[in-house]
Amino acid sequence: MTDNRNAGENAARSARLAATQFANEVAWKRPHLDILRQEYKGQYSILVETVQEKILMSHRQGRLILPNLAAYGNRVVGVFSDYGGEHKGSRYLTYSVLVCTFDIRDWLAATIWKIRKQYQLESKEIAYKDFRMGQILRALPDYLLTLDNYLPGFLLTLAVQKKAMEALSPTSKDSRNLLEAALQSIGVEGRKPQVNEKLARIVELVAFLTALLGRDGQKVFWMTDHDEISPTNGKHEETLRAFQVLLDVFCRDDQAFSLVGGALPFEQRDLGMLDLLSATDICAGAIAEYLTQRDIQDPDKIVVKPGSEHVLQWLAHDGVGLKKMTIVIRKGDNASIESAAIEFVPKNPPKNVTIVPISM
């Protein structure tokens, strides 16, 4: 019995040491985070300015440690994005973006495939709309834990109250015409004004996060969900063109990406890609639902879709490799716009969270 206990303790100690080494290797130490240029002040959207402000504030407080996406020789930055809250019942629009190490995708896919087989998920996409499916609910904790422990990346979910978005969106015909003309100048055309506005918001946010976390010489691959900003392959090429232009705006003087590309979810399913995109899908859905419920319910009476509690609990802590941030922008008193980084505090903290020291 003693030998078995000693063997178990030694294995646990080795696992903690390995996790600590990995966490320190993939932590970005002495980061350069203030990338908004003075000459473009007043031209950035309030969404990007808010994200920059909250990241800088959290870093100064020692609360946010961003990932080093060049660790272990990673050559490609993977970017995955999804959006939620557009249905009538939601009071919030959500934009969830995962920026991560891309070279690890095959190994990560093989690891998650074991979870899929264990819970008989096979090729079923892990999607927020399917959270009532038993196999997904049972697989969800292991799927989230795998992302935490093995994926170096940053997952940002930005929630914007629809009332606030109405106040922030261009209302005059001249403003909309200026945006349309700017998009047409880079070959993005033939879209409705509201789609132009959504495209501009998403592409600017994704470009900002990619430039913030990417390193000089790396390649970039961006996968966005099928959506009105990229309804066809042709329109998606236009979206990528806008992304490239804004990446150049956000890149530091000593930073340039060697290749920028992207895709919509492939017709022939690539589960490795979908499992990364799923992280943004479930966060966009769960956050939109939770914040809407919080606006209309007593906090103690909030009831979310089964499975959402796993996601919200997961967002309450950073992983060994994966870091997370959730930000809300909403209308305050006297028509003001207020923002905050949301800190989730689980009532029943999970027992399988590994706490490791990171030396900065």
What is the radius of gyration computed over CA atoms, rounded to a whole number of angstroms?
21 Å
- Overall pLDDT, averaged? 90
Helix content: 40-55%
Q: Please summarize the sheet with the most strands.
A: 7 strands, mixed
Global shape:
globular
- Stretches where pLDDT is under 50 for at least 5 consecutive residues are none
Q: Structural class, judged by helices and strands?
A: alpha/beta
Secondary-structure element order, as H and E?
A: HHEEHHEHHHEHEHHEE
Percent of residues in β-strands: 15-25%
The end-to-end span amounts to 40 Å
The number of helical segments is: 10
Give me the oligomer status: single chain
Number of strands: 7
Strand order of the largest sheet: 5-4-1-2-3-6-7
Report on the architecture of this protein.
- There is one protein chain.
- The protein is an alpha/beta fold.
- The protein is 45% helix and 15% strand.
- Strands 5-4-1-2-3-6-7 form a seven-stranded mixed sheet, with helices on both faces.
- Helix 7 packs across helix 8.
- It is globular.
- The two termini are 40 Å apart.
What is the structure about, briefly put?
By secondary structure, this protein is an alpha/beta fold. Helix content is 45%, strand content 15%.
Structural topology:
Elements: H1 2-25, H2 46-60, E1 76-84, E2 92-101, H3 105-118, H4 134-150, E3 153-161, H5 162-168, H6 173-184, H7 193-213, E4 219-224, H8 233-250, E5 259-263, H9 271-296, H10 308-314, E6 322-331, E7 337-341
Parallel strand pairs: 1-4, 3-6, 4-5
Antiparallel strand pairs: 1-2, 2-3, 6-7
Helix pairs in contact: 3-4, 3-9, 6-7, 7-8, 9-10
